[in-house]
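[Discussion] Sanity-checking designs against the backbone

I'm trying to build intuition for which residues belong where. Below is a structure token string of 78 positions. I'd appreciate it if someone posts a full sequence so I can compare it with mine line by line.
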């Protein structure tokens, strides 16, 4: 019961805070719009599905990802 009361109090705290906001609502709307643009629209136009274009099977995709993660990067300036 303690946890439920605590969660209820936390929810009501944030609910009342967001309900009484004036400027904050506009700021949250701007933040949500920016996140939508960054993750939805930019992904569609600028970031192609690299793995699906290069490889046919899930095994090939997994092998490529593991190779890229575990391959040491050459940082020498020779």
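Best answer:
Here's mine. Compare freely.
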């Amino acid at each position: 019961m303690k946890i439920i009361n605590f969660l209820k109090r936390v929810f009501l705290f944030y609910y009342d805070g967001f309900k009484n906001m004036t400027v904050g609502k506009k700021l949250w709307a701007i933040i949500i719009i920016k996140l939508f643009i960054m993750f939805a629209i930019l992904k569609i136009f600028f970031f192609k599905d690299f793995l699906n274009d290069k490889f046919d099977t899930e095994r090939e995709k997994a092998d490529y990802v593991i190779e890229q993660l575990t391959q040491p990067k050459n940082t020498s300036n020779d």
